[in-house]
Amino acid sequence: MKAQNWVLILIAGGILISLIVLITRSPAAPVTPVDDHHKSQPTNNAVFENLLNKPAPDFSLVDYDGRTVSLKSLLGKNVLLFFNEGLMCYPACWDQIVAFGKDASLKQAGVTVLNITVDPKPQWAEAIAKMPELATATVIFDQDKKVSSAYGVLTLTSSMHRGQFPGHSYVLIDKTGVVKFVWDDPQMAIRNSELLAKINGL
């Protein structure tokens, strides 16, 4: 009996000491969350879809050859904007840009196609060296992302780096400067025929 009593006393003492330690222990310092700058923003297509049937936001950007391209100067022409992820989007975006550059049907329809990327202009030389056909298309550079933001293409479903890069998005502007069609394409396919059909329907 005495041995059993000692065992019970030791167990009770151990429990009491554990409770005292838990009560008197200082609370753990809160962990400050680390801001992850690489975390994607949520999808938001409100700005993009709100472009429809409204004047397209004006812009002036420089193309690969150093010429300034302004949307206002293209009034009287149908304009197709292709916002894309640029250098890192190989081969999908590159293939679409090349397809636009080589498409005689679009040229015959009098469509001005502007391929817009946020890449630094000097880096585009590397892309042309790898795929010379890219030089057949008009590529303009939105390095500060102001135009991409104005058109709401940085937070669409097709972007693999939402908030930082466009994905694979089209904006069709008619001869009066009004947006008539928008399309974000997560499949990143070549869409010349579908887009030409939309243009012919204007």
UniProtKB/TrEMBL annotation:
CDD domains: PRX_family. It comes from Candidatus Amesbacteria bacterium GW2011_GWC2_45_19. Residues 50-202 form the Thioredoxin domain. Pfam families: AhpC-TSA. This is Thioredoxin domain-containing protein. One of its GO terms (molecular function) is oxidoreductase activity. PANTHER family: THIOL PEROXIDASE. Keywords: Redox-active center. The keyword Signal does not apply.
